[in-house]
Specification:
Length: about 450
């Protein structure tokens, strides 16, 4: 099951080795200095008038541009004095992050509201690029207790709230029901990867598909989805701040993945988008984001099944990471713009709008009171993703808090899964790289 520690406590404990007593001694990165989060936290919005307009930077996660436009239109009808300029700031999380960093450095052209992914928001926080939204939450009466706790707590650090959940997802196990039936397999996701390994030859023999399973494209996905394999084998990228990607259990998990491709021959690696490969019938199964669900259901010409992620030899539950993106407010803009952006942020995340966003994309509804009955009637598969939230696990520190670590994990995964590189040697090299990132970019900012 998901750890009982929320994000605030999890990070406060990380790397200290002193147990719960350390919570009062170490709260997270120091952000003191001009224009940083500590200074911004003191802003009083009581007599502030919202700016007349602001830019909303998004990459339209889950092909959400149309629903974003619809929600903005509703907002403009309710708040005609605040104009929201919808800006396509990148094709993916990486591109929008690079654009935001460039604007931060230039101190010009900043948005009022920006999409920030699970692997980018922490560096914005540590660099003082975003503000804590606690005062805005209080001023606008945003009901944080009505948000899915596991999703909103991902943005809590240093006893403050730094963003609200937006396009939030977990990976899902997708499978071709027709292929499974033809192979004489149960109509469900496998309980473990070992069980799937028993099924794979039957699928390969009877389906006509190129692969029984295809690993997600490594760039942007390897660090995220391979946590499932690592955790199932009792390994991880890191344990708190200790880098453990080269542990025997982590190496065994990735060796198994490599063997499924080169030794057993039933798996492949997607070159671009595993969900598209699956919908095209190239593979009988894959793992992909819940945000891909509606697109898959629309594109596939077969019966689509979804299930929880498989476990491994050491853990059969609690092996699914959360993921996706939230919405944050930059520190380098006026408090009038910050208030205008927060007014829209509140509206964007209201129950009816989060239900509409979920219906259009397949992402998780972020509000507990969101009426999902119509959505589930049309797309019952979303219920599986919602149910899996109860057994999600906080992502490894190394993946979400070390700047650039996700790309390094992708490079290492490519050596193992596409170049048949030595697993132990590759993970040893990755450990050295990740420890270097921690020592240089993260450790100096941790206060305790």
């Amino acid at each position: 099951m998901r750890t009982n520690l929320d994000r605030r406590h999890f990070l406060g404990l990380a790397g200290l080795g002193a147990g719960a007593a350390a919570l009062t001694a170490c709260g997270g990165p120091s952000t003191a200095g001009p224009g940083t989060a500590v200074e911004s936290a003191a802003v009083d919005f009581t007599n502030v008038k919202p700016a007349a307009s602001f830019d909303f930077w998004t990459n339209h996660p889950g092909k959400s541009q149309d629903v974003e436009k619809a929600i903005i239109s509703k907002f403009q009808a309710k708040f005609p004095d605040i104009k929201v300029n919808l800006v396509t700031a990148g094709a993916n999380y990486e591109e929008i992050a690079q654009k935001f960093q460039t604007s931060q450095a230039a101190k010009t052209g900043l948005p009022g509201l920006v999409v920030l992914s699970d692997v980018w928001w922490f560096r914005y926080f540590s660099n003082g690029s975003i503000i804590p939204i606690d005062n805005l939450v209080k001023h606008l009466d945003i009901q944080l207790d009505d948000f899915q706790k596991s999703l909103v707590d991902d943005y809590k650090y240093d006893n403050q709230q730094w963003a609200l959940p937006y396009g939030r997802s977990t990976p899902l196990f997708y499978y071709n029901k027709d292929h499974f039936k033809a192979a004489g397999l149960p109509d469900r996701a496998p309980a473990t990867w070992q069980e799937f390994a028993e099924w794979a030859p039957k699928l390969k023999a009877s389906s006509g598909a190129q692969y029984a399973y295809i690993y997600p494209a490594l760039a942007g996905y390897a660090g995220w989805t391979l946590q499932n394999n690592l955790w199932g084998w009792g390994g991880n990228w890191s344990k708190d701040w200790e880098i453990t990607c080269d542990s025997d259990k982590s190496v065994a998990a990735l060796q198994w993945a490599q063997d499924s491709i080169y030794k057993d021959g039933w798996a492949g690696v997607s070159s671009k988008e595993a969900a598209d490969d699956f919908a095209a019938g190239i593979t009988s199964a894959t793992i992909s984001s819940t945000g891909s669900l509606l697109g898959v259901l629309k594109a596939a010409k077969f019966n689509v099944g979804v299930g929880f992620l498989p476990g491994g030899p050491e853990a059969t539950t609690g092996v699914c990471p959360t993921g996706g993106a939230g919405l944050g407010i930059p520190s380098g803009i006026s408090k009038e713009e910050q208030l205008a952006a927060a007014t829209f942020l509140k509206f964007m995340t209201e129950p009816d709008n989060t239900a509409a966003f979920s219906a259009a994309t397949g992402y998780m509804p972020t509000r507990l009171s969101a009426d999902m009955s119509a959505v589930l009637a049309a797309t019952p598969q979303i219920k599986t993703a919602m149910d899996q939230l109860a057994v999600t696990r906080v992502q490894d520190n190394a993946r979400v808090f070390l700047p650039g670590a996700d790309q390094e994990m992708a490079k290492a995964a490519a050596k193992i899964l596409t170049q048949q590189g030595d697993v132990k040697a590759t993970m040893t090299e990755l450990k050295k790289t990740l420890e270097g990132i921690y020592t240089k970019d993260v450790k100096p900012k941790l206060k305790g």
